[in-house]
Design goal:
By secondary structure, the protein is α+β, with helices and mostly antiparallel strands. The chain has a single domain, classed as Aminopeptidase (3-Layer(aba) Sandwich). It has a six-stranded antiparallel beta sheet with strand order 1-2-3-4-5-6, with helices on both faces. Strand 5 and strand 6 form a beta hairpin. Helix 1 packs across helix 3. The radius of gyration is 16 Å and the shape is globular. The protein starts with a strand and ends with a helix.
């Protein structure tokens, strides 16, 4: 079950997703520059990741895109951490939704200590509800390196359909194929009903 309390803030059982802010640069810089994460991303992400990479991305890319109104970026925060230490809503990942993009409509990453716990599936489920509900999307396209098994599992669990693989030389890890997935509003509703 997910709830939205102010439009862009989304709550799940274990997480609070809130709009990305300038103050998140420190946490993003702490968790993001890991080869195990970046190797699956396109070369648009600089590698080695510069010491001011998170600040530069948030201030010069993310915040202007959000202000323009056709992109949404959520900081993923853990409710458990916030309960233990008042005010601790440190970003441990990001979900990026774009209305129009040749790279696909959605991307995400999660700090390595939190992999394998179902947190990204939980977060993506909440964002899908918002995408197909409040924003009225009819479909999204999502891409990943063919070798990115974790990303593939999230897509499979949330009703996306693999359309094709295509050759690419765009990933940091040197992966030669990209998977292209589609999730329609109808398939999302079916996936949600199957979980009820």
């Amino acid at each position: 079950m997910t709830t939205q309390d102010d439009g862009l803030r989304i709550e799940t059982p274990r997480m609070a997703l809130r709009p990305l802010e300038a103050r998140d640069a420190q946490a993003v810089q702490k968790y993001f520059p890991e080869w195990a994460i970046v190797k699956y991303l396109t070369k648009q992400v600089p590698w080695p990741y510069p010491p001011d990479g998170a600040r530069d991305f948030i201030e010069n890319v993310a915040l202007p895109a959000m202000a323009a109104g056709d992109q949404w970026l959520w900081a993923l925060t853990l409710k458990e951490a916030a309960l233990k230490e008042a005010g601790d809503d440190e970003a441990v990942g990001i979900i990026h939704l774009r209305r129009h993009s040749k790279e696909g409509n959605r991307g995400f990453w999660l700090a390595l200590p939190h992999h394998g716990k179902g947190l990204m599936t939980e977060a993506v489920t909440a964002v899908n509800d918002y995408t197909f509900g409040a924003l009225g999307f009819e479909r999204i396209t999502i891409k990943n390196a063919k070798e990115n098994a974790g990303s593939r599992r999230v897509k499979e669990k949330t009703g996306a359909v693999l359309l094709r693989t295509e050759p690419t030389d765009d990933y940091h890890g040197g992966y030669a194929e990209s998977e292209v997935w589609e999730l329609t509003a109808e398939n999302w509703r079916k996936a949600r009903e199957g979980k009820a």
